[in-house]
Amino acid sequence: MSPDGMTPYHSSARAKINLFLHVTGRRENGYHELDSLAVFADTADRLVLEAPALPGEKGRLVIDGPFGAGLDAGPDNLVLRAAAALREAATVPSTTPDWHMRLTKNLPVASGIGGGSADAAAALRLLSQAWSCESADLATVAAGLGADVPVCLAQKTQRMQGIGETLVAAPVLPRCAMVLVNPGIAVPTPAVFKAWKESGTGFRPPASLPARWENVHAMCAALAATSNDLQPPAITLYPVIGDVLAALADTESCLFSRMSGSGATCFGLYEDMPEAMRAVASLRHHGWWAEAGWIHTPLN
Ligand SMILES: C[C@](O)(CO)[C@H](O)COP(=O)(O)OP(=O)(O)OC[C@H]1O[C@@H](n2ccc(N)nc2=O)[C@H](O)[C@@H]1O
Ligand SMILES: Nc1ncnc2c1ncn2[C@@H]1O[C@H](COP(=O)(O)OP(=O)(O)OP(=O)(O)O)[C@@H](O)[C@H]1O
Q1: Which of the residues are catalytic?
Q2: H-type helices in 136-182, by residue range?
Q3: With a 6 A CB cut-off, is 77 part of the ligand 2 pocket?
Q4: How far is Cα 206 from Cα 94, in angstroms, rounded to an integer?
Q5: CA of 186 to the centre of ligand 2 (A)
Q6: Which atom of ligand 1 sits closest to the CA of residue 21?
Q7: Are 254 and 270 in contact (CB under 8 A)?
Q8: Is the pLDDT of residue 13 over 80?
């Protein structure tokens, strides 16, 4: 229970969207260096610490929600991997109990919006509170779990560089409505990076960005001068992504559309929410998952 002894600890694990993604280099270990602008959506998984485990008992993970079926709740789940990594890094005493957790999976799995990474980051935020180890180096623990986990810790607009672990200030964004669309296919990230490499595409320089965009039109004009370098190889592997992008671009008042991360989820940007909601209604006619919300802008 939380410090008041009543409320369970809980956290949203928001979808991460890459507004652009440039592949800028390659490391000897095979990982790629990136320059990417990551934003967070209203659409989110939810993680709850339900009750402490009994002494000596392992913490259980229960998964529910629309995308929970088929997702393994065993030790390989990123939530439990995050718990184990934090316990070790922060040398949490073995007498400190595990927690039983519930993950409500609202985000499609292996879909380019970092759902698993967001869940792992939520587990680190919650357990560091529950275990009173907030001073642990969460950024390092996060980087050890996956390239997208560090940016998911703060869930705020940031620019990702290095292989994802170097977080730098991003432009101040205008208020902007965003639609997410996924055609129901799971896309393995390594396969897309491999296809990018085999395509022989050269590295792209980092983007040149201002300190702020005054309005959504200025932001979309600047995004048009960037790219998601993983989009062409992902479309080659999964042509339906091209259909999703065409349908998004066709929705009324769509200002900009692109694939996020390694796909298959694509996003559309709109000036206001009614237009985004109308787009969602038309995209769902294809049988695709589609959600509308604001780009999340925390106050800090
Ligand atoms: C594509 C992005 O989603 C953009 O935000 C991330 O770079 C991927 O983040 P992620 O899924 O957390 O990635 P990881 O789980 O660390 O890596 C999965 C696989 O993606 C490839 N990978 C990932 C990140 C990166 N900078 N270069 C890579 O080449 C590697 O083949 C790696 O084995
Ligand atoms: N809690 C979790 N949620 C989703 N996937 C998980 C989770 N734990 C482990 N995984 C595994 O991690 C893999 C990647 O899932 P995820 O949904 O994070 O992909 P993604 O959206 O493509 O991420 P990214 O944008 O970071 O590449 C899946 O193959 C899945 O089996």
Answers
A1: 16, 148
A2: 138-145, 149-154
A3: yes
A4: 45
A5: 9
A6: 4
A7: yes
A8: yes
pLDDT on residue 300: 41
Annotated binding site for ATP: 108-118
**Residue 34 banded pLDDT, cuts 50, 70, 90:** very high
pLDDT > 70? residue 1: no
State the ipTM, two decimals: 0.97
- What distance in Å separates the CA atoms of residue 240 and residue 183, rounded to the nearest whole number? 7
Would you put residue 124 in left (φ > 0), alpha (ψ -120 to 50) or beta? alpha
125-130 — which CB contacts under 8 Å span 24+ positions? 125/11, 125/153, 126/9, 126/10, 126/11, 126/47, 126/49, 127/49, 127/82, 127/83, 127/86, 127/99, 128/86, 128/90, 129/2, 129/9, 130/9, 130/49, 130/99
Interval between CA 214 and ligand 2 midpoint (Å): 34
Distance of alpha carbon 69 from alpha carbon 108, whole angstroms = 11
Six token digits for residue 192: 């897309």
